[in-house]
Specification:
Elements (H helix, E strand, L loop, with lengths): L1 H4 L8 E4 L14 H28 L3 E7 L10 H22 L5 E6 L2
């Protein structure tokens, strides 16, 4: 596991959060199990990685780059799973940014397709 491979006290300069999955099915045909997996990959995993790397990021004056999508804010046909989970991911980014900015650190979000 990547997190376990990070040496104790290591400085982290940049954490790029880019992984995402999504089922292209229409909303009425969504597979709930796949939706739950998408929540794990698109929302829970970035939170877990942020928490795991946070000590190294703070020590190294690091930054977090979240790669978002315009689909999180502008729904498109067939993107329900991806759009909903990426909207949650974006909100997670906003919350992190609000708390981190107060401490003098920065996060960045780049929305693809915008």
């Amino acid at each position: 596991m990547l997190i376990a491979a990070l040496p104790e006290g290591a400085l982290v300069r940049l954490l790029v959060q880019n992984a995402a999955i999504g089922d292209p099915a229409p909303l009425a045909e969504l597979d709930v199990a796949h939706f739950e997996k998408a929540l794990q990959v698109n929302v829970v995993a970035p939170l877990a990685l942020t928490k795991a790397f946070l000590p190294g990021l703070l020590a190294g004056s690091g930054r977090i780059l979240h790669l978002g999508t315009s689909v999180a804010h502008q729904p498109q046909r067939g993107t329900a799973t991806y759009g909903v989970t990426k909207a949650a991911f974006h909100r997670l980014y906003q919350q992190l940014n609000a708390s981190w900015t107060l401490r003098g650190y920065a996060t960045m979000c780049r929305k693809q397709g915008s």
